């Protein structure tokens, strides 16, 4: 079976920048996604289209195609109580910021007693990154998965 729209794809990945590994699924479980439903970077999804089990793909993405360009005006002052991920914050730490649109990853720049200055750029903004992918399994999506817009099961969403 080839990867096409409404395929559920299970894959391993390694993310790197300038040859330095940043993260990988290889020591754990592969990930699962529903192809054609905007769950991957568009250029990664395009490279996976038509691939079969066992295929390996390497994709390098410019900042605009990955985590975005680095914005110089992305420093915001927020209440410390809205940060999660640690009990005590220090500059340079990555935090999750609770917003009305959901959680987003930020970098702590400066910390006070009640407020913190955070950089709202994604930690990989402005960086060219590479993904090494290996297709592990492919199957047709169920009607529920298509209706929900995401894959269900191990490595996907369970509900």
From TrEMBL:
Enzyme class: isomerase
Pfam family, one: FKBP_C
Catalytic activity: [protein]-peptidylproline (omega=180) = [protein]-peptidylproline (omega=0)
UniProt keyword annotations, A-Z: Chaperone, Cytoplasm, Isomerase, Oxidoreductase, Rotamase
Lineage: superkingdom: Bacteria
Assigned EC number: 5.2.1.8
Gene Ontology MF terms: isomerase activity; oxidoreductase activity
Subcellular location: Cytoplasm
Transmembrane annotation, as ranges: none
InterPro entries in alphabetical order: PPIase_dom_sf, PPIase_FKBP_dom
SUPFAM superfamilies xref list: FKBP-like
Family: Belongs to the FKBP-type PPIase family.
Role, per record: Also involved in hydrogenase metallocenter assembly, probably by participating in the nickel insertion step. This function in hydrogenase biosynthesis requires chaperone activity and the presence of the metal-binding domain, but not PPIase activity.
Protein name, as recorded: Peptidyl-prolyl cis-trans isomerase
Protein's organism: Alishewanella longhuensis
